[in-house]
Design a protein that fits this description.
alpha/beta; Endonuclease, Chain A; five-stranded mixed sheet; two-stranded antiparallel sheet; elongated
Length: 231
């Protein structure tokens, strides 16, 4: 079927940020003829990432954002990904630097200033390390939210740490909370550990758990069963 479109109009609307779906719906057709007209006019179509970015920019209501995220989770809940898919996802997070929070950036900058080589979201199998210190193969994980203590996060902690250790990494969990904010002492702990490992000293084949102030953290129980940070 041939459609009598005003090509200049659909081009103007698309370049102004309107989506293909919106334009097609207003004209009572599918997207394909719209795409053909735009390409014939020399318009470069937006990538999927650009479309999502524009969508989130226009959704300012926290309730609407939460609804969309919830719907996305519902769509994939119960679908088991293959190991290959999970490994690919982890590598994508590293390449695109997805999920880096401000605290991680600050700590990484402090470590870089001390001469260490770091990588955000380093992929190790199906997992991503918050900050990987390459001198000594130290896997730094910053825990700040209460969700790390419970549910799926706590249940998979032991498996995650064991995997990192088996792959030659030394996990260091830093609890950076309101009571124990990230301080320079935590940086000194990591620098010292890196120097010890690189000099050939034993660093124990287990995870290190410290507070944001650099002191060792003690727990009511291990994270697998719901750890509670203590002073």
């Amino acid at each position: 079927m041939e459609y009598d479109f005003n090509v200049d109009d659909i081009t103007r609307r698309y370049l102004a940020g309107e989506t293909l779906n919106s334009i097609a719906k207003s004209l009572g057709c599918c997207r394909n003829p719209i795409i053909r007209r735009l390409l014939a006019s020399g318009v470069v179509l937006r990538s999927g990432g650009e479309v999502r970015k524009n969508m989130w920019k226009n959704i300012t209501s926290p309730a609407d954002r939460a609804r969309i995220v919830s719907a996305a989770h519902d769509a994939v809940r119960g679908k088991r990904q293959s190991r290959e898919q999970r490994i690919k996802t982890a590598k994508t997070r590293e390449i695109r630097q997805i999920g880096i929070n401000p605290g991680e950036r600050i700590l990484a900058d402090l470590l870089l200033a001390r001469g260490l080589t770091v990588t955000h979201q380093k992929a190790v199998g199906v997992y991503n390390i918050d900050i990987a210190i390459h001198e000594g193969s130290i896997a730094v994980e910053i825990f700040g939210g209460g969700w790390h203590n419970s549910g799926r996060h706590a249940e998979r902690f032991r498996k995650r740490c064991d995997h990192l250790i088996n792959e030659g990494w030394i996990p260091v969990i830093i609890w950076a909370t309101a009571h124990f904010p990230l301080e320079q002492a935590a940086v000194e702990y990591l620098v010292s550990l890196s120097e010890s490992v690189c000099s050939g000293e034993s660093a124990w084949c287990q995870e290190h758990v410290i507070r944001g102030d650099g002191h060792n953290a003690t727990f009511k129980h291990n994270l697998k069963n719901g750890a509670i940070i203590r002073s």
